[in-house]
Here is the input.
Amino acid sequence: MKDMLVRLLELPDISEKENQLGTENIVFRRPIPPEKSFVCDWVMEHFGQYWKNETESAFSHLPVNCFIAQKDNEILGFACFESTAKNFFGPTGTVESMRGKGIGKVLLVKSLLALKEMGYAYAIIGGIGPADFYKNTVNATLIEGSEISIYQNLIRKKP
Here is the structure.
């Protein structure tokens, strides 16, 4: 998996999409520390141990370096930033039944805006999966030679 680079100075306007999702009672916000176990358990259930660990790290900052999408008392998606490395975006994911609605786009842009507010001009999307999504959403570009990244010696659970 490669990393991608995104320029934070020209991010798309997501207000219309966020308002549209708001009409469906979908709220985007940063969770607070009392919600840590609920958010991390949800990430574990839907995306596994590695992403849960990274999400736990996001809770070591105040405000928390994570956004969630929720409807009522249900988490629909999440996006972390600067949880694994400085200026890194990820992990992020949306529950399968809600994909394609724009939730991931809103979470991505809100997280990148938070990185911009921290003073960064560029951000790294680490170990990307859907490269086309990042390219089309925020004009991210592949970083050549990034196959060997911070994840290269990750301790893995034996089968």
